[in-house]
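Posted in: Protein Modeling Q&A

I'm a second-year student putting together a small comparison for a lab meeting, and my supervisor asked me to include a predicted structure for Maestro heat-like repeat-containing protein family member 1. I've never done this before, so apologies if this is the wrong subforum. The sequence is pasted below exactly as I got it from our records. If anyone can share the structure token output, I'd also love a short note on what stands out.
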Amino acid sequence: MAQPFVPLRVLQGSVYMQAVARPCVCLLCCASQRTCHIRPEASPPWSRDVSLVLSLSGTAHCIGTTWEHVLRLMRMAQEEDDMLALCHALSGLVISARKHLDLGANADEVMDITQEAVSIKAYHTLRVLFSCWPIKNKGKVAEQVLVIIGHLFFLIAPSKLKNQVNQLIRWLMMISPNVTPFLISQASRCLCQLVDSLALSGCGGVNLESQLENIMLMLFKQLSIKVNTSDPYSVQNSLLVLRTFSVLTKLYNDQMVFLIRKTLESKDPDMVVSALQVLMDLFHEVPQSEKLKNEVMHSTIVMVQEDLKPVRKALLSFIEMLGRHNYLALPQSSAILDYIVKLSESDSSVSKGQEPCTSPCQVSLPRLVTIMCEPNNVLAFVPLSRTVVEMALKAQSQGQAPYLTSFHLTPTQFVTPQNLLTSLMMLSQKPYREKDIGVSSLKLLLALHPITSLHPIINSDVGQLWMQEIPKMVQFLDEHTEKTLIQEKWEKWLLKFSSRSLMAINDDKWLEHLIRVILGKITYFSEAEEKTFLYKLFGFTLWTSSDKKLVQMMLTSLLQTTHESPTEREGIAEALSIVSMRHLKVVLDHLQVYCAVLTDRDSSYILQMPQEHQQREWGLVCGTIYLSYSRIISASKVSVYHHVDAILTSIPRHYYNCIVDKDKNLKLAYLDALTVLTNILSSHPMAFKFEFPHKSDIVTFMVELIKEEPLTSISSPIRQKAMNIITDFRMLRPLIEVEEKTELLRTCFKSVLCLPPTEVLQKEEFDSMEAQTSVNVLEDTLQALRRLMEALIVEMPTRTQHCLELLDTWMNSQKENERERAMWCTTRILGFIAKMKDLDKKIEFTRLGRLVRLLAMRCQDPVDNICFLSSQAVYNLYCILLRQKRMENFTCHPTPSSGSHFGLACPPPSAPPMIQRSERVGLGVFVSDLGRKKEGLWEEEGKSGVYSANVFYNSTFEIAKAFAEYFTEIQVTNLVLTAIECLTDSRAKVSLAAAQLMSAVLKERGKDVMKIEEVVEGILERLNSQLEPNTKEETLQAMCWLAGSNTHTVVPMLLHRPLPWDRINLNVWKAFGTLRESTISVLLLLISILEKPHPGEEALETALQPVAVACALCEMLSGSLSQEAIQELYPRLLLAVLYHLLWVIEQNAPPKMVVYSREGNLGSKSKPFDPTSCALEVVKLVILAAAYDGVVTYANHHRCWDLLSSPRFYYLGIMELTSGIVKNCEPAILHRILNLVRNLMYSPDNHWKVLARAFYAQLLWHRSVAQTLGQDFLGNLVKWIKESNLIMKEVGLRGISNLALHPQQSESLKSLVPFLRNFLKSEVRVTVQAVKSLRNIICHGKGMDAKVVFCNISKQLRPLINDVRARVPRPVGSSLGWG
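Accepted answer (user: helix_wrangler)
Welcome! Here is the predicted structure, written out as tokens:
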């Protein structure tokens, strides 16, 4: 039956509690038990029977309503069970409210109550608990109330909470004494929560400050209670007390320090010990001001003077802590040191097996060593060390090991042997820092031997080493002072001493502990010198280990240390380099694995850092890695270079696969790190002996970085650093290819020269410092570009002209700043070349006229500073030319003291400061055998003019005069065309002068002439006129210079003129053979035409160019030519002509075709030539021009020309001609021919093959050829005779026959006899050559073997005597000895 509805306001008192309150409380209780931490045994019995119907997720929407009802119930609750049930419900409400308030702005939307209302209800709840509930009786209700109140503190408004502080403190002080551990811990937690909640407001308030002394008293009493480690509430209470002290110290630092000091100076030992514990716990949080130090030292001295025995142990620990914070270095520490010495004297020796500090009145040796070895106790070390040494020596005199006890088993109390050794090494590092600290450290080390407490028996090796070395080291220090000591030498001695000691100890476990101690010291010390020494000590220590796993583990630990400062990064690198001297592969492999930090997103710790720190950390790691590689390369010998290419392989990947965002700073950090590596790599001569295939990848990568830089600004030195890295790689093999260098220079020029002017860069920056920085970066970038250009010139000097030509775009730019920078580059390049020692051997200006024209044009530039730079460049170029001419007594001096540079006045005021500063650097002093000095300037021998940069400044005429009329291209062209027009002047002197001028200009500037076709046609047209003989000769000379400078343009034009040529064209070709320069140039082109594969059997008219070449050679070689030039090209020219001859005789030329006609003598007709006779004539002329008339005579006597004219017997003609060459030419010529033909013997072109093999076979007639080393003559010949082609068989047998003439070949030839017998029944020519070969083998063979061979083949030769083939019997008879 349904219950009737009863309004709540009707129910009163106990009726209300029975009807509504208790069931509601039960429900709240059940829900709250899920979230609160109240002990379940405190739950009221009647609440356990209620079902869990209220879910935790729904409580947030009814917190306000429920709390309102709970408050009403709290005011009416009388029984303890009801109060406990309400505590459960209230705890759940408070915790739920705190949880949802932590959500922030959305808390009001989740709960049905605002944050302000929560604060009010929390305050009301606190008031109800204090006014209505019995919380002073220390019962179960009080325990639960402590839990609830701790949460309420965080919900109550700080202003209201501060008003309740006094009451809360009094209540907590009242319930603290004589209670259970749980209640004590809850009271401590409540106090801690009160202080925490007040600290969140930023200020504890006046009430809390006034209660500090009471709070301190309560906390010290709780702290004095001995902690029971088995009781979690006891441990928790201690931690909460210390946390409360920590929070209060942050709020009231001065007051707390004062109260703690006051307690320290009290007479209560328990309170003093508690105060010492608190002060030691808070010491790192308190600002270490001078005032604090003085106050703490005063309190410590008071405790020392009081010398309460129960306090001694804690006081000694406190003094140890003071030592770690450099307090014992203060002047007033002497009283404390005396106290320590006094305590140590009471225990000057420790009996064997006795535990240290058995009496609180004693300071044992380990504790004393621990105090004095603190890094900050430097001032205390020397006086304490005397006491320690006395104690140690006394122990030794009693037969006890002074440090070899169980002290090492308590490393948390006493310094470990490893820590002691490291500390003493560090103190010895600067031996004169404090009095005799170095000597004291060494003496202490010797007195405490054996320092390794893990060895129960004194290690004899260590003992002998220390007894030998330490006295020497002490004596060394006694003989020196701080001024005379060489620190680097002393540190090397110390490190070597430590390494030898560790090698003697030979214990990897002991070594591991030592290394970890060193790592700890590295993180502790901040001075650069000390950290650097520790890193070296780490390296030498790990170097002694033979355990690979230990090395790997310690390397991991080292690389995980901080590398924020340059000292740390350099220290890590130095340590790795030292370890690598013994464990190179391990170190390199470990570094390679560590590199994954840069690229592996899954394992890198960098991505776990805040994003704003990731890029910087990546750069630091990268710097550490590359610096380590560089130090390893410096420290290691040849072995490391086998791994360098693998290192270079990973460098681009580190950047491309970078796990953080790439920006300017990251690029700079990466390039800075890489620069360190490349600097070291390029400075080691050993590096140039190895190949680094991945060098090109680095260069390409740097070029890409340069391309990425904007052309509108220069906000960073990325360009500069990338170019410096490329410069470092300049001479490492393999060298950069020409095409790559061209692209590299073009990219760098564009990236630097196209930058805005300096004035624009300065205006773009609002800050004057940033503006100056941009200017400085630009200057440094230009210098980097200069170094790069110089490096490339040194690497490939023959490409200097090309390097300068790449600047043309900017030299001719419309922008002044681009022209100025390009001219600056040109000036620096030429200045660098002028100072090169082996300039004449490497630098070649193949287009010198073009360069002079460009510089001369810039000497007329509107910008005065460009004119100045150009005049400097011209003079640098002039000096280069003078040096290349190898003239005598030429010396260029530095800038005169008057401020002029080689006679040039100072730069005009308009010159930018950067240019002025850079260009006042002279060429230095370089000596050549070139000229003589005249009034501070320099003149060239044979010239009347005196040249200097001052003379060239703004004077194109002087430049042209100095360089033999070098003008711009337009000026040269116009000059030549004007001179051509003047050739037909009726005045002989005028026409001659015009011809001479044209000849001189074309001689010096022929390459710069434009409109060459027009010039050639104009000259030929004037030659058809009736010129004066001298004029005609000079004009032909000019044509020679033009052809020599523009061979590939002039010669094809002349070759394409129709055959046969008239006398004018023939005179031009004849003139081409009169000058060595033009002769070689023209001949080279003609040879290249003849060497190309000729057309097949088409009409001869379609392939007249080779025929025209033969006609040209007929005329060139028939006159008075340069014999030296012909001899220089003789073998190649002869082969090319013979190749052409073979092609010609195979063509079906029209009958009576005339291609060339030579004038006869006076009164005789001209002689016509067809293509074949013309080619034969060229062969004769080539031989005669080379001054080998005997070859022609021999050929005439042996029907050579007839054979060469026959396609069938051409190869025989070649061999006969070769015989003449062998008889009449020097061996050097024969070897030159051999070197040419051996590359053609297997040519796919059959013409070349026949020609080359015929020459090759007959050249073997000469002994010097047959004895040429490294040639497989017999192997080649055997291959030919095995071919199916009869000509090849005959040529091969001819070669074997010639080879058999030399007795040295008999051993290798006798084995061929059975094989050669197979050719006796072959075609007649083959049979004849086979017989001749056998004859020569028999006749010229050595020893009895030849007779055996003769007997073996005589039966086979006899039938051939009656061979009907006419050519066979005679050589057979000769073979049989019949004459």
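A couple of things worth pointing out for your meeting: Strands lie at 890-892, 926-928, 931-934, 937-940, 946-947, 1156-1158, 1167-1169. The longest strand covers residues 931-934.
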